[in-house]
Every structure is written in structure tokens, then in C-alpha cells.
Design brief:
The structure holds two protein chains of two kinds. By secondary structure, chain A is of the alpha+beta class. Helix content of chain A is 52%, strand content 8%. Chain B has helices at residues 20-28, 100-103, 115-127, 148-151, 153-162, 179-182, 199-205, 212-224, 242-256, 274-283, 306-323, 336-343, 350-365; strands at 9-13, 34-37, 57-61, 68-70, 83-85, 88-89, 94-95, 109-112, 134-137, 167-173, 190-196, 206-207, 228-236, 262-269, 271-272, 294-296, 302-304, 329-331. In chain B, the strands form four sheets. An eight-stranded mixed beta sheet of chain B has the order 4-5-9-10-11-13-14-18, sandwiched between helices. In chain B, strands 2-1-3-8-6 form a five-stranded mixed beta sheet, with no helix packed on it. The longest helix of chain B has 18 residues, at 306-323. Classes of the chains: A alpha+beta, B alpha/beta.
Chain lengths: 341, 366
């Protein structure tokens, strides 16, 4: 592993030499089918590329080099190779750089810059780029020279997070790219134990939580788990929670709502109890139609709010009169009791 | 050489070395490696990331900003109208709840060596407003005394404040580093304050800080030597048997401190910017300070659900009052309603609380 060499000394390859290489036909079976050490593509849709090659043929040849065992490794053009495989080409025109003596890090940088000029990277791909660079280049240089190229801030914790993203399980990475889980969720997953991550991921995708719900779900489960000293898989195996998941009368949005309400009541027992008492109290008053009372957010302000919908002054007068006759208004107040705390 | 075990290296910014304060500090830290760095140059050692605060490196610099600033406080709760004397940033202690973990994007302990050069300017600011009482503290962005053995801030600041009739200097600390204070001849206009908590919170959550008993023993020494004392129960934290825990601290106060020499005692419940939560979780994975029911306050910070705060203030406030009626109890960043329900009275607004505390200053120092 070479880590301390400055980039300016590394990237001295003669790019013209690459351009001058004629294409040769390489049998597809000779080319490694794994992404290999230079690939930085993830979560892509091959169909447009397949359609393009079908219609116009292969415009740019992939670039390959021989690995230590003599197999052809893809330097640039991994997606093209997969498309050609799909189209059942047997021989592929490639430019072979094996005899030019490039170091792996030079080939990696070549592919990076080739990609940067043509497309944006998704989050997983940024993680792939950074983890590959991390093998050859010092952290300082990765932070200073490469994070900005990827539109990332030059912070160590951001680098760590993207390196962690790349190590996540394949289904999670795919869900991130397909936006079934939010970037914030993926970030939280990076720091979790694999079992907790797997359990939470199954719940999120199983119930189809949206981004806001995902963030609430993760916050509640993490807080309860730490407070009650209970691992997340154990927490989510509790009977009351499993009952929500297995309730055949509920659709996914209903399950999501019920799950989050249940977790909220576990995480914030006094707040939830207070909200419930207030709700029961205000609905029990029998307020006139179009009149409602609400509490301030989290009861932080001292003032409650009365809202009256009316069509005209006459109706307003009627509602005010009816409101004046509601019994029990005086008992409305803070819904907690002294021994609640 | 003074032994300050946590500091292992000194960085001096170009231009800061010429200040006499740098010379004094470097003399006190003889034997430690010293590196000269450019003012904007940030060097981070150890693992990269937000979580390495480099508390073992001391950076000496010439601060170009305002030294005396009003405490940012908040407009949505009642504040005390405090002024911050900006002598340095970051702290060698590592309290799990510390706001500084999210506050500064620069790591290492930073000391502003040009403080002496700015005293004249600060003095003019204070003298310009003779009717106003400047309650000034150095303990907002660092612990006031943790670095005292190497900075000697007392010998710089005490004579300056002794000559100011409309200002007091409050040194807020969790340490017992009082030797520098005790060896100085100055006492007038100086308040030495301790942050207190329950013994179990102190031992679990205030890493690197002396026990409550040691803090109170240091307070007793200061009081015996003629210093006015202050105490701050901030942050109050809900934990198992929290009432009993805070009572134990109060019992120790009773044992070691004469309540008549206390200028004020504040209470504030744990509050934090939402950003801090993740940092606390990462830096202090075993902490339980986040277990409580925190909701967003009107200032955007997370704070305990209101009835919980009221109950804590009601409990500790009544116990403090029972101990002594003249402790100058006040709440930090709370609403009029919480004041009323927690303490049974309210200053009404920030101006009212400022006047209340100014009165305490007049009564104590004249």
C-alpha cells in the first residue's frame, strides 16, 4: 500500500499514450465480471446504455489492464461491459493499458477523472471513490484534494461517514440509491451494529416509512434502546410492536402511524399522557361545531388557543353564545398532575 | 514548571509569541514541545473528525475579535444580562453535556495572549456606562480556573476589576484550582463560583472534574480567604433518585460553606442544541443524560418537558431556601410561567432579572 506519495507526483501519466492505444478485441470471458479495484459505479440503470449500444453500437471502447493473475480488469467502462454482456457480445473492443506500466493509483485516478467529467456520483459511489483513494493516498490529501471534487466538505467526519456508507450491506446501499431510505437514515446506519441495522432496515422497507417517519423511528428506537438498556432487535420484537406489524386489518400507512405513536408513548410517556388527557378533556367539553381548542407545541407556551370557524357575524354570535353555555370550561388547564413527574 | 497533566503540546501562532503572556505561559510549561503555526493554520492530530477535540494541545493566539460581549442568551426566555469576557475557548474537562462540543469548529485549548492589551479598551467600555452594573464572567467558553495555573488570569484581571466600581468579575469553575486566586492580594469585585450537580452526575458525566466535595472544599478555602462565592446548579439532570442526589450536594454545601457569603445561586435544567445530541451520543456512548423527555423550546434548543423542569426547580429551590433565605436564587433561561410555578415569583423579564442581580452586587460589594 502506497499512502504518502503526493498526488502531483503520482499523476504524471502520459494521457496521450492512452489515447493512442488502438482497440483490440478481448473475449468477454477473459474480462473479470466483478467491479474490481477501479470501478466507481453503483445503482445504475443499464437499460438506456443497452438501447444506445443496440442502436448506435459501441462508441467508446472500455479500457482494461491485466491483473497479477493475467485476467483483464476493467479500468473504465464497467457499465459498457455489463451492457455488452447483456447483449451477448462475445468479443469486445477494448484499449489495453497493460504494457504501459501504470500504477494502480494512476489507473484509479484516470477512471475517477473520466467519470467526473461525464456524470455526478451518487452517495454510495462517492463512498466507493473515497475508499479506493484511501488505499493509496493520505487522509490529508483525500480531504484537501478529493472531497471538493466530489462536492463534499473537507471534514474528517464526512469522510468517515462516506467510507462507512460503502461498507453497508448491498440491499441497504441499493435502497439508498433508489431513495427507499433517506440519506439521513443511511448515515445513522453507518454507526450501528449490523443486527440493529438489519432489523431497522426491514421495518423501514417493510412498512414503507417516508423520510420523516424514518428519522422519527430511528430517534425513538435509539433513545428507548439506550434508556432501557435493551438492544434494538429485542425492542422491536416486543409483542405490542409485532402486533402492529402483523395486523392484517391495517395497511402500511396505518401501521406506520400506529408504530410511531406507540414508540412515541414509550419515549415520551409524560408528554404523550398530557396530550391525550388534553385531547380527551377538550373533546369531552362538547364544543359547538367549528370551535376547537388546541394546546401550544409541547405545552411550552402558557397560552392555549381557541379557534372558531364562522360564515358571518350572526353565526359567530351564535357560536360565542353556545360556547358560553359549555359547562366545564373552567376546568380546562395544564393536563399533568403533580405526581406525574 | 507547573504540572498540568492533560497538556502535552503547545502551539503558538505567529505574532502571538511576542506577547508577555506567551512568555509567561511558555515558562510555566517548560519541557513541553512548542510548535509555531500560522494564524489560520489548523492542524489536527489523531483520528480525523469532529469528535477529536485535541484537549491535550494548548494554542496561544492573539484574538482579533471583541473581548467583552453580551451573553447571547435568548430573547424567548428570561436571561440575566450577563457579559462574557472572552479569554479563551474550549476546556480541558470533558463534560458529556458540554455545549462547547458543538460550538466551535476549531479544536485544542485556546488562550488569547493579548488580553492585557485589550484591558484599556474594556475599561473604557465599562467606564462609559457608569450607571450600569457589568456582571462579567470568563466561564462561558472555557472553565474559568481549569487553566489558571498556566495562564495566571487572576493576576491580570483581579487588579483591573478591583478598580471598577460598576463591574464584578465572576470566575465559574468545576475545578479546585484556586491557588492562584488565594495567592493574590485582590478580593474586591471578584466572585468565585462553582458549577454543582448531584455527586453521581458529577462522577459520571463531568469527566476530568473534581468531585463535588473537592469543589466545595475549594470554595470553603476561598470563602475563608475573603472571596465572595456563587453557585450554579446547571445543568440540572433528571436521573435515578435525583432529589436525593441534589440533597446530598446541598448537605455538603451546608457542611463546607457559609451561606451568608453567597451572592447568588442559579438553577438551569439541561438544554442543548439539536445538533449536540448526535455528538454526545458519539463522544459519550454510555451517558444517560439524554434519557429524559426533551422537547423543542421556544429558542430551538431541546429542554425537559415543562412540568419536569418546574418540579426540579420547585424541589431544589425550596430546599435551598430552607437552607438559607438569602442565596439570591435565580433561573437561567426560563419563562415567566416556569419562574412563577417553580420558584413562586418572577422578575417578569430580562430587565427585571438584571436588576435583581445588580441589587445583589450592590448589597455585597457596595
Amino acid at each position: 500500500m502506497v499512502k504518502a506519495t503526493p498526488i502531483r507526483d503520482l499523476f504524471c501519466m502520459d494521457v496521450l499514450e492512452i489515447a493512442k492505444q488502438d482497440s483490440i478485441l478481448v473475449a468477454l470471458k477473459q474480462i473479470s465480471q466483478s467491479p474490481g479495484p477501479y470501478c466507481m459505479s453503483f445503482g445504475f440503470d443499464l437499460k438506456p446504455l443497452i438501447r444506445s449500444i443496440e442502436k448506435f453500437g459501441l462508441i467508446n471502447s472500455p479500457i482494461v489492464t491485466k491483473d497479477t493473475e493475467g485476467r483483464m480488469e476493467v479500468v473504465a467502462g464497467y457499465r459498457r461491459i455489463l451492457a455488452l454482456k447483456h447483449l451477448q457480445w462475445e468479443d469486445i473492443p477494448c484499449r489495453d493499458l497493460s504494457h504501459l506500466g501504470f500504477a494502480p493509483v494512476e489507473l484509479l485516478l484516470f477512471n475517477l477523472h473520466d467519470n467526473l467529467s461525464t456524470r455526478p456520483f451518487n452517495a454510495v459511489e462517492k463512498g466507493m471513490v473515497l475508499s479506493r483513494l484511501d488505499q493509496y493516498i493520505s487522509r490529508e490529501e483525500v480531504l484537501r484534494d478529493f472531497m471538493p471534487l466530489l462536492d463534499l466538505p473537507c471534514h474528517g467526519h464526512t469522510l468517515e461517514m462516506f467510507l462507512g456508507l460503502e461498507k453497508l450491506e448491498q440491499p441497504i446501499k441499493e435502497s439508498l440509491v433508489n431513495r427507499r431510505i433517506s440519506f439521513q437514515t443511511a448515515k445513522a446506519f453507518v454507526h450501528m451494529k449490523p443486527e440493529s441495522r438489519a432489523t431497522l432496515f426491514n421495518w423501514i422497507t417493510g412498512v414503507g416509512l417516508n423520510a420523516n417517519q424514518q428519522s422519527q423511528f430511528l430517534a425513538y428506537t435509539a433513545d428507548i434502546s439506550i434508556r432501557d438498556q435493551k438492544e434494538i432487535p429485542e425492542l422491536l420484537e416486543e409483542e405490542e410492536i409485532l402486533d402492529i406489524l402483523n395486523d392484517v386489518n391495517l395497511n402500511n400507512p396505518q401501521k406506520a402511524k400506529r408504530l410511531l405513536n406507540f414508540l412515541k408513548s414509550r419515549r415520551f410517556p409524560l408528554l404523550t399522557r398530557s396530550e391525550k388527557r388534553f385531547r380527551e378533556k377538550s373533546t369531552g367539553l362538547g364544543l359547538p361545531d367549528g370551535v376547537s381548542i388546541s394546546h401550544p407545541p409541547f405545552f411550552e407556551d402558557p397560552d392555549y388557543r381557541l379557534e372558531i370557524f364562522f360564515k358571518n357575524g350572526k353565526k359567530l354570535r351564535e357560536k360565542i353564545d353556545a360556547l358560553g353555555k359549555v359547562s366545564g370550561l373552567e376546568s380546562l388547564g395544564d393536563p399533568w398532575k403533580e405526581d406525574d413527574v | 514548571m507547573i504540572s498540568v497533566p492533560h497538556i502535552k503540546k503547545v502551539r503558538v501562532e505567529t505574532g502571538a509569541r511576542a506577547h508577555p503572556q506567551s512568555t509567561r505561559i511558555l515558562n510555566r510549561l517548560k519541557g513541553l514541545p512548542v510548535e509555531e503555526v500560522r494564524p489560520a493554520e489548523e492542524i489536527r492530530e489523531g483520528p480525523p473528525g469532529f469528535f477529536n477535540m485535541e484537549k491535550e494541545t494548548l494554542r496561544l493566539l492573539s484574538f482579533q475579535g471583541e473581548f467583552l460581549k453580551p451573553c447571547p442568551g435568548t430573547s424567548t426566555y428570561i436571561c440575566c444580562g450577563y457579559q462574557i469576557l472572552h479569554v479563551g475557548t474550549n476546556c480541558p474537562l470533558d463534560c458529556s453535556y458540554c455545549i462547547l462540543q458543538a460550538y466551535f469548529n476549531q479544536t485544542s485549548l485556546r488562550v488569547f495572549v493579548n488580553l492585557e492589551n485589550k484591558l484599556e479598551q474594556i475599561g473604557k467600555r465599562i467606564d462609559k456606562d457608569p450607571e450600569k452594573i457589568f456582571r462579567i464572567g470568563t466561564g462561558e467558553f472555557t472553565d474559568s480556573l481549569a487553566l489558571e495555573p498556566i495562564t495566571g488570569w487572576a493576576e491580570i484581571l483581579f487588579p483591573f476589576f478591583a478598580g471598577k466600581k460598576n463591574a464584578v468579575l465572576e470566575l465559574k469553575t468545576k475545578t479546585d484550582q484556586v491557588e492562584g486566586l488565594l495567592s493574590s492580594k485582590w478580593r474586591d469585585r471578584i466572585i468565585v463560583s462553582w458549577s454543582l450537580n448531584s455527586p453521581s452526575v458529577a462522577s459520571r458525566e463531568e469527566q476530568g472534574a473534581p468531585s463535588i466535595k473537592k469543589r466545595l472544599l475549594a470554595a470553603r478555602r476561598c470563602q475563608k480567604e475573603g472571596f465572595v462565592l456563587g453557585f450554579h446548579f446547571d445543568p440540572l439532570i433528571v436521573h435515578g433518585d435525583w432529589e436525593e442526589g441534589y440533597m446530598r450536594t446541598l448537605e455538603m454545601m451546608d457542611r463546607y460553606v457559609d451561606p451568608k457569603g453567597i451572592i447568588w445561586t442559579s438553577m438551569g435544567s439541561l438544554r442543548y442544541m439539536p445538533l449536540l445530541k448526535g455528538i454526545i451520543r458519539r463522544r459519550h456512548p454510555r451517558t444517560h443524560i439524554l434519557d429524559g423527555e426533551f422537547v423543542p423550546g421556544k429558542d430551538g434548543k431541546m429542554r425537559y418537558f415543562k412540568p419536569i423542569r418546574i418540579e426540579m426547580y420547585r424541589f431544589l429551590g425550596s430546599m435551598l431556601k430552607k437552607w438559607h433565605g438569602g442565596l439570591g436564587i435565580y433561573l437561567c433561561m426560563e419563562s415567566d410561567e416556569v419562574w412563577q410555578k417553580g420558584l413562586g415569583w418572577s422578575p417578569g423579564n430580562t430587565g427585571g432579572l438584571s436588576r435583581y442581580l445588580d441589587e445583589r452586587v450592590y448589597a455585597t460589594f457596595g
